Amino acid sequence: MYCKRIAAVALLASTASAQTFYDVIQQQPTLSLFATIIKNFNTTFNEIISSISASELRTILVPNNEAVASYLRQSNIRSAAQISSEVVRPFLSYHVLMNNVSSKDFSQPGGSIVESALKDPEFALLKDNAGQVVFAHKAVEAAQQAKDAAVEVKSGIGESVRIVQSNIQFDQGQFHVVDGLLTLPINCSKTIARRGAERLVTYIGRVNLLDALDGTPGATCFAPSDAAIESALPVLMNLTDAELVDAIKFHTLLDPYYTKDLTDGQLVETALAGRSVRVNIVGEDYYFNGVKAITTNDIVRNGVAYVLDGQRSAKEHDNNKECHVDKYRYEHKYGVRGDGHLSREHCDRRRRKWHYLYANCKWHTEWCR
């Protein structure tokens, strides 16, 4: 009996894998709304699928009926058949992923970055004309409760959906059912403003760097939160435009660094020539020059963003005895000793300042001892 059951399952799997994507989803009642979209825009969907090399298998994220119905209500659209073609193409493109990616691949330690078929420059401005990406990882609360933790897929503006059914085969790959629609990425400046760093955007606009921030292909933006900017206002108000430009460049990397690309102790070069950022990883938390990231892997049109809260890693606090700063700027203003170091007392009082205005400071073993 057991052998017969295995044979039956294998037969069903082989039958499903021989069917087209539409044939498989129309057989599942919970996917009927998405099936309607595919039926109405079959030509568009086939063009997207065909844009991937014929030798590659595809992976598709399929929103269930609840997810599509929620989108229709929020968009004041009466039925799935009434979705416009202008909306459908980028929407479908973002849900079609390159290669054959299983739920196990998605839930690798550190998460996974997967490229999609979305290359519309309104939503994807990456190097080498690469497709926009999603970030997939195990849900933290689920990982603490069960070995088979749910997988979340993060898209634009920090929004995530959860995989509720996985590894369903069709003739050109497999698909996973998700409980929401992926959110199309928007500009970095708009994303970080919505994620809690609106005041930084104001300062970037002051020195006319918004176009550079949003128009540099494949970049990483570190964005101090509004609360962090508030705490640094006395210093920010006295910065010259040139100093502010340097500080902003120091918060920018010229390649997209997702958490999957980072290791503890890693030094990453910034857009400010000769300056690097040190990465520290403590459990699930990421620190950049000792500043904790309160959001990570925020997918933006031209790369990725992190919002920072300004709190230092505890292990760095224990090790920092004195703060070293570049003599050419600070020694007269702050009474730095002749060896270029601040006393511990002065360091403690000004430490938050260095975290946000360290464009002319060296970090960790170089200026914190």
Automatic annotation (TrEMBL):
Signal peptide: 1-18
Keyword Signal: yes
Record-linked InterPro entries: Adhesion/Biosynth-related, FAS1_dom_sf, FAS1_domain
Coiled-coil residue spans: none
SMART domains: FAS1
Keyword DNA repair: no
PANTHER family in the record: FI19380P1, PERIOSTIN-RELATED
Protein name, as recorded: FAS1 domain-containing protein
